[in-house]
Structure formats: structure tokens, C-alpha cells
Amino acid sequence: MIESLLRKYGVKPSKKRGQSFLKSHTIANDMVTVANITRKDTVLEIGGGLGILTEAIVREAGHVYVIEIAPGLVRALRDLFRENNNIDIIEGDALTIALPEVTKIVSNLPYSISSEITFRLLRELRFEQAILMYQKEFAQRLYADAGTQDYSRLTINIKYQAEVECLMEVPATLFYPVPAVDSVVVRMKHRTEGPKAKSDFVFHWMVTGLYSYPNKNLKKALGIWFRNLGVDKKLTEPVINNCRGSLKGDERLRTISIDNLVVLADSILGSIEDGTLPDPRR
Fold it and tell me: Which ranges constitute the DSSP H helices of 112-241?
């Protein structure tokens, strides 16, 4: 059935495109249920595919926007939902086209753009919640706890902006073509509690600089980063000392919480302001 539909609309499954088509109406219905969609909601779906998830969303939402990059799938979706007046099928690249204002997002995201599109959604849209499906290994990094192997630069940059909750696992057999790994559905909301750095830019600059060395301790990683910036690594001592006892320097990067990284970012900002560190904002 799926193969014949793909042939009809001239669509060839592509590893480069990075998306498998959801086959399960049950999973689609479950995603819509946990999103608690009502007629008051305007919902965004990225990567409509063959419309399995789209169909479940359209039944409940006031209005639905679907962004699909493949022309053949755009034709298929427009045919499938030609009788529905609460849906717009938008042909284009979700990484570059203007995004509509929505209250909720429900999507099986193409895995090749998972990181880029997630950050774009958080940066540009003020949604109430997003129900998003990712490849399992990627999803585990989104909600990993400090001290675990999956805790990484991605984890920190996401958790600084969002709350992420694992909702359900989805076996690979529920997709066509069958991917090499299982998937996970998460709930994502904008983070509204917890400390924020005095400069978000400096926070992310610091995380990028330090977490190229995730298995090193803080003092060692700071020294390498400062050397790469052309700064004397002896500056690590005052930067750590200005963390007011929250950090000592011997902590492994993978164990440092978001709250303590905020303290570190503010200490680094102080060194920028007194001229001992270069200002990345210039």
C-alpha cells in the first residue's frame, strides 16, 4: 500500500532525506492524545509524509499547517485533504521558510535535521508544547541527566531553553522503510523556571568551547579552551574561584549541572567585562 502510493506520486524513499514514513495510526492517535489538541489549537506538523499523523491532527485541531519539502508528497497530502478546510499544506524547507504562529507542534521530525529544526522551533515559536518524534539515540541526549554518558553539549543547549519529557518508545517496525534504530516521542516546553545566565550568548559560547572535551575535568577543559582563544591558561584559577564555591575545577564536564554552568558563564562574563577574556559578542 505505502509502496504503491509512493510510486503514484513519484516519491522515492531517501536516506539522505532522513525520514521514514510512519505506518501506525495508533502511534499517531497517541501523539495527538498526549498533545491534548482542541479546536482552539493551531498546530504545526513538519514533514507530513503520507499523512498518517496529519490525519489524526486534522480531526482535532482548529487549524493545521503542514510543511513538506518533497513535491510528490505535497501533491499526495493535498489530494488526501482536499475536502478539509482547516489545513494548509506548505511546500518548502522547514529550516528556511517562514514558520506560522501556532499553539502546538506535533511532528515526526526528519532525523537529518533534528538538531537544527529543534533549535529553530525553540528560538522562533512561542508554542505551549511540542510533541516530537526523534530517533532514539538522539532523543536520549535531549533529556539525559548530568553524570550520564548521553549528557552532552546538545543536552545542555536544549535543557537551557526547554523542559523535555520522554513519553513513549516507538519500534522501528512501525515505519517504512524500516530504519536502523527505534524512535522516541518526547514532550518539549519552553523552560520557564531555573537560573539563566546574565548573557545567553556567553553561555552558549562557553558550552561550545568547553564541551569539545566532554570527558575532561573543568580545569583542564578551561585551560585548553583559553589556550585556543590565545589567553593564558592561568586565568582558569580566578574564573573557577569566582564561581563562589559552586565549582572546584576537578568536576568532569559530563557531571556539571545546568545551574552550575550558569554560575560558570557569569564568572566568564565577569572576565570578559574586566578585559581578561575576549568578548565574543563583538
Answer: 114-124, 136-142, 153-159, 200-210, 218-228, 236-241
Tell me which residue has cell 569539545.
212
3-state SS assignment for residue 43: strand
* Burial per residue of 183-208, b for 16 or more beta-carbon CB atoms within 10 angstroms, e otherwise: bbbbbbeebeeeeebebeebbbbbbe
- pLDDT tens digits along 237-281: 999 999 989 999 999 999 999 999 999 999 999 999 999 999 998
Architecture of domain 200-273: Orthogonal Bundle (1.10)
Instruction: Indicate the domain borders of the chain.
Output: 2-190, 200-273
Q: Which of 126, 74, 78, 69 is nearest to 97 (CA)?
A: 69
- Is pTM beyond 0.90? Reply is yes
The tens digit of pLDDT for each residue in 26-41 reads 999 999 999 999 999 9
Q: Could you tell me which residues come within 8 angstroms of residue 255 by beta carbon, excluding any fewer than 6 positions away?
A: 146, 147, 151
CA distance 151 to 145: 6
Is 2-190 in CATH node 2.120.10.30?
no
